Amino acid sequence: MADPPRSDLFPSSRLDSDAGALFVLQAKGEWWHAGFHLTTAIVGPTILTLPYAFRGLGWWLGFVCLTTMGLVTFYAYYLMSKVLDHCEKSGRRHIRFRELAADVLGSGWMFYVVIFIQTAINTGIGIGAILLAGQCLDIMYSSLFPQGTLKLYEFIAMVTAVMIVLSQLPSFHSLRHINCASLLLSLGYTFLVVGACINLGLSKHAPKREYSLEPSDSGRVFSAFTSISIIAAIFGNGILPEIQATLAPPATGKMLKGLILCYSVIFFTFYSAAISGYWVFGNNSSSNILKNLMPDEGPTLAPIVVIGLAVIFILLQLFAIGLVYSQVAYEIMEKNSADTTQGMFSRRNLVPRLILRTLYMAFCGFMAAMLPFFGDINAVVGAFGFIPLDFVLPMLLYNMTYKPTKRSFTYWINMTIMVVFTCAGLMGAFSSVRKLVLDANKFKLFSSEVVD
After folding, report:
1. Is 136 within 8 Å of 311 (Cβ atoms)?
2. How far from 345 is each of 27, 164, 330, 339, 360, CA to CA, in Å?
3. Rounded distance, CA 41 to CA 156, Å?
């Protein structure tokens, strides 16, 4: 078994004076903590978009794509954890995706490619989490005060203020209890929404169901690839090395247990949400199935208590998601601003942390208020970010590290996944940007309406 090339690029000794490693990516966690982090990073309110993704694929292709994405991402994350384990055993422990890619591939430019994609993903999700949380507050306010005058951007400002306070939690490991609660919240609102959909589907008030696809061939193709990009974004992670970095050494084998915990939750939540939502609403499924249960005209299609609880659970989990995907940005800030010779909570380190994290969250909140494009942002992030990081790079890193023979099954399955998902990513990027452009005339800056 050959060692990864260029073993001197990122020596482990560098971490002793790395504030990002010592303060943000502290290696203190157990495997179940990694499972909590992974579940928060993957299982979020975006699962309520799955019926909308099925709308562009239909029943058969929807099931195939959902199952394929699940199997491929589990396999990809497992391969990446093996590469990280191998590097650690070779004396080159990596705690950042960008450093792992640059070391294994032996190319300095990969460092900047990965950091650019990661930054786009994490910032996009941070913006989306604040936007959705603001929308949750707006839903509750509108239900309680139908004639109220507060606008969506005002609720986004409230959410941003809370996120600024929570962002001062210093390390990824300090989120372990929050992310455990996040796992329970995801199960809670999923089962509430699924129960509401099943109850509606079996009642006399069930909406008329239609499962037809786009009438034109080109429309069906674009819708299908947009849906594939959405599913890729929902399964995406993009921060697995940073999550594995929080495990107390030795990390070997711990990540697999965390992945199994995470994908057990995925199995119950993803399929139940996709099946129940698409079964009830068919090709009228919205980018957030809660909007179908709460139509603009007429009574709500589920008990107010059920919808209210689901919205509260979603709101609370969105804070955890925003925190998890901010850790890479915080790690970069800390690495370049903190002094490791002084304590984590010393004035020298506390003041820059307070200022930089506040500015970052304020930026995300401003963008969320200005551009309410949640459904379209989800698809674009999936195509440009998650597909290369989660469906292509892990296989390439594994082949470069372990060098399986070209006659082996592992080599060819990895190559096939890379080629198929590179093509899917290119088509998904085109179709997602196309939909973003088409929707551009449907919204106004600082609008109170979130465009599907």
Report:
1. yes
2. 18, 17, 15, 11, 20
3. 21
CA dihedral over 129, 135, 137, 140, signed as positive or negative:
negative
**Distance (Å, rounded) from C-alpha 359 to C-alpha 352?**
11
Bridge partners of 29, per DSSP, are 247
Residues 26, 5: Cα–Cα separation, whole Å: 27
- Give per-residue burial for 48-80: e unless 16+ CB within 10 Å, then b: bbbbbbbbbbbeeebeebbebbbebbbbbbbbb
pLDDT (tens digit, 9 = 90+) per residue, 129-151? 998 899 889 888 988 888 888 98
Return d(Cα 243, Cα 410) in angstroms, integer.
25
Say how far apart CA 222 and CA 218 lie, in whole Å: 6
- Indicate the pTM of the whole model: 0.90
pLDDT tens digits, 37-74: 999 999 999 899 999 999 999 999 999 999 999 999 99
